[in-house]
Amino acid sequence: MAHFSEQVHISIGSFTQNVVYYDLKLSQKMADHHHFSFVWQYTGKAIINPADQAKALRSYLGDEVIFTFKSLTGIRLMSKGIITELSSVDLHGSAVGLHVSGVSHSIVINDIKKARAFKERSMDDIVLSIFAEGPGEFYQRDSIKSTYLKEFPNILQYNETSFEFLKRLATRYGQWFYFDGMRMQYGQTKTSKTVLINGASLHSFKIQANMVSHKIALAGYDYNNAANIQNAATKTSVGSKDSFASNVNYNQGTVTNAELSSGVYTVNAQNKEEIDEMIQLQTAGNDANSVYYSGISYFPIGLGQVFTIQNQTVQHELIAIEVTHHSEVHGNYSCEFKAIPADVAAPHYTDVHVFAKAENQPAQVKDNNDPEGLGRIKVQFYGVSSNIVSEWIRMIQPHSGAGKGFYFIPEIGEEVLVGFEGNNVQNPYV
């Protein structure tokens, strides 16, 4: 364990004195909130008056906490959060401090579940509009650079918080999504000049290679062209050049067979282009789990930070996907990290199968004049904000050919019952 003088500093919003603490732990993870805890000796008194303790419990709940980690070489990392829990710490029947727990500012967009639609918006536009609902210093425009550049005709945030919605988008479309300690990041990682030398600034270094199948086969249906769609791949063609990841990719034949004809049906692809993108993205995401690097650093490493490990003559360029900062007592610091190769083509949590699940529900017809003559209608769902009207929705008709069954279109203003193919909120039918 390294002993640096004044390498850890904590400030608490309305507390003007030096914060004396012990047992500090700050856990950070991609596509998740950060969590921290420490014991705060907020007074130098040997015995704390119960009235003073009660006042402290009331005064500091909800305050902002800023952590500053520094190394002797000048590396500096800051992180902040909100105190969400305070509990008294007693020793032999006397109050000696407060146990402080809290969460990152990302929690502000995880406050309430919503149902709303984003029509004809790019991913960056959607992310920026949601981040703008948070506090002023919650994000910077330059930090929002998604790699998915297509415009969404109509995408729904359905019965999920804004954080859950953005996490689903990041997972489905392979975007880096994380709170870097101070601001939200979406789409890109952050470079640095930090170099950890194994045996010096780095200890307990571990490499874990994982030989698991990267194979995926998908099938779907394109109703606009009345065509079956499918694609499959045994491994990615855009994988990491890391030697361990390359070895896992090269030897995929040891854990898979060559058969690719039987694909799982997906409700996330509406055409051949989308299913091809899903295959490329998922194999890249699988490749990102080929090798994990972990260790204990005495230099502060930030979540989403690209850094280098020097292991004798071998270098590894990595991105931190999990970090836990520790400080047992004042000025005593280390951080545990988990990392993957920095050149992966998609995040390790990529999952092209995710979608928001919906149940049958009523809606009101808003338009029945389908320009393509396919008998579709537009509806407005009850409770969806902004009075947004759906895209053209297919109807189930009791018509099976010439002279068989009948065919009808509901009138504007009438109520219909809407179901969802595979329970996917993006695939409604009437």
TrEMBL record:
Pfam families: Phage_base_V (PF04717), Phage_GPD (PF05954)
Descriptive protein name: Phage baseplate assembly protein V
Ranges of residues in domain Gp5/Type VI secretion system Vgr protein OB-fold: 362-430
Organism: Flavobacterium flavipigmentatum
SUPFAM superfamilies: gp5 N-terminal domain-like (SSF69255), Phage tail proteins (SSF69279)
UniProt-listed InterPro entries: Gp5/Vgr_OB, Vgr_OB-fold_dom_sf
